[in-house]
Write a structure and sequence with these properties.
This protein is α+β, with helices and mostly antiparallel strands and 230 residues long. The protein is 39% helix and 12% strand. A two-stranded antiparallel sheet has the order 1-2. A two-stranded antiparallel ribbon has the order 3-4. Bound molecules: zinc ion. It comes from uncultured Sulfurovum sp.
Length: 230
C-alpha cells in the first residue's frame, strides 16, 4: 500500500467541491457540516462526519445517486477528470495493478481507475462524494477484495494520509538452501505491529498477492549475492 502523493491535493479537493456544488443543491440544510466541509474533509475529519451521520443515512442517500452521475462520462467535470488530475498510475492498495487514466486530446474519455469509497457509500452516503474518501484503485482491490467491508480511519490505513511502508516491512523467511536460485526456497511476508496495517494487509490479501512476485525478490537476492562477492 502506497501513499497518494501530489502537492496539489488540497487544491484539487477545493476544485472538486467547486465543480460539484451546483449539482448538490438538495444538500440538507440541517446538516452539522457545510457541503464544502463534507466534500473537502481530510481523512481524520471523515471519521467525525461518518459518526455524526451514522443514524441519518436516509437523508443523504441522494448523494449515492449524485456519485453515480459523477462516474458517468460527460463533457464537464467527472470521475475521469478527477482521476487524470490525481495521476495515480498504480493502485495504492496493492501497489501492483496499473490504474492509468486515458483521455484523448478531443476530450474522449477512454479509461480510468475505479474509485473505492474508503468509508463504504451505502453505510455512509454522506461521504459518497468526499474527495479524500475516493481512492483511485484497481478493480481487484475495490470490487473483489474490499467490496463493502467496513473501513475507518481507526481500523485501516487511508492511502491519502499514510503509507504502509512507514509501519510495515517485508520479512524474508528462508525455507531451505535453494533460496538463492529458487522461489520455492523462501517466503516473503509483511511484518507489522500496527493493527490498522494488519487489517489492511488482510483485507487486500497482500501477503498472498506478493507471493506472486517472489521472482523479483529472487532477482534482488541474486543481485545482493553478486555485490557481496565483488
Ligand atoms: Zn489494487
Amino acid at each position: 500500500m502506497i501513499k497518494i502523493q501530489h502537492e496539489h491535493l488540497d487544491k484539487f479537493a477545493k476544485e472538486h467541491y467547486e465543480s460539484l456544488k451546483g449539482k448538490l443543491t438538495g444538500f440538507p440544510e440541517d446538516c452539522k457540516y457545510s457541503l464544502e466541509e463534507v466534500l473537502v474533509a481530510k481523512p481524520e475529519k471523515l471519521d467525525e462526519i461518518a459518526k455524526w451521520a451514522k443514524d441519518k443515512t436516509v437523508d443523504y442517500e441522494f448523494m449515492i445517486k449524485k456519485y453515480e452521475n459523477f462516474t458517468t462520462k460527460k463533457k464537464e467535470y467527472d470521475a475521469y477528470d478527477l482521476a487524470k488530475k490525481l495521476n495515480v498510475n498504480v493502485c495504492p492498495y496493492c501497489n501492483i495493478n496499473s490504474t492509468y487514466t486515458v483521455i484523448k486530446k478531443n476530450n474522449k474519455k477512454i479509461t480510468r481507475p475505479e474509485f473505492d469509497h474508503f468509508y463504504d457509500k451505502s453505510t455512509h452516503p454522506i461521504l459518497a462524494l468526499s474527495f479524500y474518501n475516493l481512492i483511485p484503485s484497481c478493480h481487484s482491490c475495490n470490487s473483489t477484495l474490499k467490496g463493502s467491508e467496513e473501513f475507518s480511519n481507526e481500523t485501516h490505513i487511508n492511502p491519502y494520509s499514510e503509507s504502509l511502508d512507514k509501519v510495515a516491512r517485508f520479512e524474508l523467511k528462508i525455507e531451505d538452501s535453494t533460496f538463492y536460485h529458487s522461489i520455492n526456497g523462501f517466503d516473503v511476508k509483511l511484518k507489522t505491529e500496527d493493527e490498522r496495517a494488519k487489517n489492511s494487509i488482510k483485507s487486500f490479501e497482500l501477503d498472498i498477492l506478493y507471493q506472486n512476485h517472489k521472482d523479483i525478490v529472487l532477482e534482488l537476492i541474486k543481485h545482493l549475492a553478486k555485490l557481496k562477492r565483488c
